Amino acid sequence: MTVSVETAGMAATVQKARRRKRIRGSSIAIMVFLTMCAAFVSVPLYVVIVTSFKTMDQIALGEVLSLPTEWTLEPWRKAWFEVCAGMTCEGVSHGFWVSLKILFPSLILSIGISSVTGYALALWKIRWAGTFLFILFLCAFVPFQIIMIPLVVLVSSLGVYGTIWAVAIVHSILAMPLLTLIFRNFYKDVPEEIINAAIMDCGSFWKIFFEIILPMSANIMIVVLILMITTVWNDYLIGLIFGGVGTQPMTVILANTVITSFGEVQYNVDMAAALLTAIPPLVVYFAVGKFFVQGITAGAIKG
Amino acid sequence: MPDIEFNNIQKSFGRLTVMRDLNLHVEDGEFLVLLGPSGCGKTTLLNMLAGLQDVTDGSIVIGGHDVTDRDPKDRGLAMVFQSYALYPTKTVRGNLKFGLSAQKLDRAEIDRRVEWAVNLLQIDELLDRKPAQLSGGQRQRVAIGRALVKNVDVFLFDEPLSNLDAKLRAEMRLEIKKLHHELAKTIVFVTHDQVEAMTMATRVAVMNAGVIQQVGTPDEIYERPANLFVARFIGSPAMNTLNATVVRDGGGIGAVHAPTGTRADLSAYAFSSEPKEGDTVVIGLRPEHFSVGCEAAKALNGASGARFSLPVRYTEKTGSDVTAFLDSGDGGLIAVRFDHKHHHVPKPGEKVEIHYPKDRFDVFDTGSEKRI
After folding, report:
1. Tell me, what's the pLDDT at A2?
2. Shortest CB distance from B72 goes to which of A193, A203, A211?
3. Facing residues of B255 across strands?
């Protein structure tokens, strides 16, 4: 009994000490600043979420911050199945499947190729490797808009313009410089003696990659995977330019629905469609976000 | 079984040449230790032999085949690395098998070799563990096992014991020596630790600044160092080297150390070329050859080649023996090692009489630093 009382007392003192520490001018300023930052994103997000559950009658009243008086899932159903984007009225669900079809080839192509190029640049003695890296570094910072028109010509000469493959290939190519740099920097931390031992044991570029290096790459794979999923899913411009009718990703469909409404603007449906589009990367992030943080720190120190 | 030849090896990194015209012959079945301080080029030489670094000029011949331009895996070598370099995602078994499956051996042969190495090194309990679950000594064994299973005739070791604690290092030293004895393979072993070199090698090549200073058996290197670098590098504490002037008088040839006025009697020394009167030389005295006290002089029975009577600066006890550092009068120190059971340990400031046997001197030319 005495023991527990003592511990409770101690806990109280500790808490007091902590509390005293916490109340300082600078920490108040920081808290206010952070709260404002959070509000900057979360208030609009809150409005989007509540609006998507409201009926149009309530929205017409104009009280954007109030909770729905009558909760309805109808806008979500409409957004998914019925909403019109331009001439077609298939809902954003069509875009969802197209986005998925774009996502997988993009991921496989970009990660597959850039992990190998990063491995080669980091662990094999390659002539002009330094120059290559410098050029890659420059490429990683060239804005896509600058090379957009030549790319369109290039892709159409490949005969895939307007298909899912056009979007996937362009995504992979544009991601390659950055991903190669990321992989290269990760593999640079693999101890030199391990690669030397592997070279003496077998000497095969591919066998060393698949049997020794790839199994060591789980951390960086997750980082790159999340990076790519968010980039590809959230992209609008590439999908708009390289996707044809019926092969445009979810973001483009969403934009079209919001922009081209006939008659009354259905805010609740628009909001629901926007949320539906934003959910997939969030799901991925929540599912493997823990590994993402681990991967970043592990990569920073050592694999 | 093959021998190894380095012919006129040159190695440059960009414009910096670190090795010129290096020649070395490693006999069949020999345990050759490349010994030298950090940065002397010994690991570079080993990596060139392994094929992990390119040779700028010259050739490397293993068993009569020029392997200078061959891939590392085609040279018939196995290597044990300083950090063990085990594959972290593979089990011990996977580590041992990796090199063999790359050679496309059939499964029965692979299993047979793995089992043989595992029994030899007594690591059968570790087979299904990952390297992270092993202790330093166990990793070392696995690394050696990974080299053994390849069934090659030449093994390369790159400072494999430097990450182990002192006790384990002594054990592994014995074990590697035993392996060499049992398998009778050629071994090239790189180290900066002279104890490893002296205890394991059949021959030692002492390197400094990219140049091989001396090649010889451990005894030769210790007894007859070819130059001042080898003399100072081998032995612990290091050899005392005193500048002296040659005198020739009625008692034959000698050398006088000016600060102490001591005359070293070199009449028993086998000169390869006798110096002239007045030449300056460096005489080397090993700390462990000194005798301490007046009685010691009697024990030497007229064989005393030099007598010093100097004050003690400080002493170091290392269990069984004591090293005393005496003030040589010119700011330098003379280290003297003796068995402390037979003597009292002198206190700092106390004068001690020491004698050096006349058949134990080493004499070097001051200019060329070579043995004369």
Report:
1. 43
2. A203
3. B246, B264
